[in-house]
Amino acid sequence: MGDSPERAALAVFRQAADTVPAYAAFLREHGVDPAGVTALSDVPVMSKDGYVRRYPLAERCRGGVVGDMIAVSSGSTGEPAFWPRSAEDERLVADRFELVFRDAFRAHERPTLAVVCFALGTWVGGLYTVGCLRELAGRGIRISVVAPGSDRDEIVRVVTALAPQFEQTVLLGYPPFLKDVIDSGGDVPWGDFDLKLVTAGEVFSEEWRSLVARRAGIGDPVRSTASLYGTADAGVLGTETPLSIEIRRLLAERPEAARELFGESRLPTLVQYDPYARYFEEADGRLMFTGDSGVPLVRYDIADEGGLVPYERMAGFLDAHGLTVKSDGPRLPFVYVFGRSHFTVSFYGANVYPENITVGLEQRGIAEAVTGKFVLEVIEDDERDRHLSVTVEQAPDAVPDPALANRVAAAIVTQLRRLNSEFAHYVPEPRQRPLVRVRAFADPDYFPPGVKHRYTRGPSA
Questions:
Q1: Are 271 and 244 in contact (CB under 8 A)?
Q2: Which end of the chain has the lower number of beta carbons within 10 A, N or C?
Q3: What number of other Cβ atoms are within 10 A of residue 385's Cβ?
Q4: Residue 325 contacts by C-beta under 8 Å, 6 or more apart in sequence?
């Protein structure tokens, strides 16, 4: 460890410049002599298009040698990318998992069943998670790992058979999929298993967390759930902690304070991170990071919107707004993540975010009838008038209800007005109520099974 996080990041830069053929070529193209670099700001920003897709896989690895394992990610565009891994990479990322399993779940004290519900095979999530959890088991964390993948029936089978033999059970998977598993679990007594949830890949609302916790018999969502901020590019970058969750839940009740802190009319994922392992920078509302992994990345523009809040600044902000937290937490900086900028739609000049729609779908009387998946888009009618359209997936066992679309539209517009000041002020009131259509579960046009769901369609903001 260097004497500062930036020095540690500079060490990653120098090693990459010396040992990674593609990065040496990248620096030459930008006219950068590594010997003259004294600050990270002297280094050019890299991106997937400007770096990853331009150089062969081996040349982006240390010594031009591909790691001992290769994972595949579809990414937000659907175009597959390949990411080498090594055992050392998994040990580093396992530190992030340990922050959840030891500090929040106390799994070093209690026999714990960890059920990996991410897709298996070549995709990055499942096998990478299994590898990190087995690394934790080797450190003395009392974890037994089972990996049914994304097979709902197999998840229910292994949980029903194994969970009674452990003091707690942890499901790890994408948020909407875990909700589907819990909702469709039939007679599974989730509340008997002291259930915990670890999610990744999507921003969700605090209403979602409370709803799923209630259905799963989870009494303390702050210490029984955690979201990981991770990417295929570099593994897990940050984790929710009880402290960050409690702060986020307080801000969910104070939209104006949240807007002041985050600068947006939506609630981002809020995690803490180790700046020595992954050094974050913020530029123009976008995040970039430096970190060593199978493919070393230096000032990598991850294409996520978000920002940074030092620990001391967060403490001062809470004090200034009279917000008191009960949870202790590591004195680590915070990074907040909205996700990819092109996941919004523009309507009358207002950015409309999927997170705003989600809160409407999680209101009582609606959440029981839908899965939580939807497609947000702006459409034109025959008169070329533009309308905000939301297509919603019906829950698999829900009885068709002709009045459901109207209830959903009313709930969505209420939450949009409450949470999104741009929407409330820019969109003419007669146009604020969205057009809502309810489609059957697993509708092939909007909700095809087995693929990563996209929450928006059409031109982005």
A1: yes
A2: N
A3: 9
A4: 243, 246, 247, 250, 318
Antiparallel, parallel or unpaired: β 345-347 and 350-352? antiparallel
The values of phi and psi at residue 156, to 5°, are: -60, -40
pLDDT at 455 over 50: yes
User: How far apart are the C-alpha atoms of 358 and 339, rounded to whole Å?
Assistant: 15
∠ CA(160), CA(165), CA(166), 5° rounding? 105
**Count, residues in the chain:** 461
* pLDDT, tens digit (0-9, with 9 covering 90-100), for 118-150: 888 877 788 889 999 999 999 999 999 999 998
pLDDT value of residue 461: 32
At position 51, the amino acid (one-letter code) is Y
Domain regions of the chain by residue span: 85-342, 345-439
**Pairing between β-strand 269-272 and β-strand 279-283 as defined by DSSP bridges:** unpaired
Q: How far, in Å, are 34, 369, 408, 453 from residue 393 at the CA level?
A: 53, 9, 11, 12
* Separation between Cα atoms, residue 156 and residue 167, nearest integer Å: 17
CB 323, CB 259: distance < 8 Å: no
Residue with the bigger pLDDT between 211 and 336: it is: 336
CATH of domain 345-439: 3.30.300.30
pTM over 0.90: no
Q: Which residues contact 23 (CB under 8 A, 6 or more apart)?
A: 16, 17, 60, 296, 298
From the list 363, 342, 361, the residue with the least C-alpha distance to 353 is 342
Looking at the structure, give the CATH architecture of the domain made up of residues 85-342: 3-Layer(aba) Sandwich (3.40)
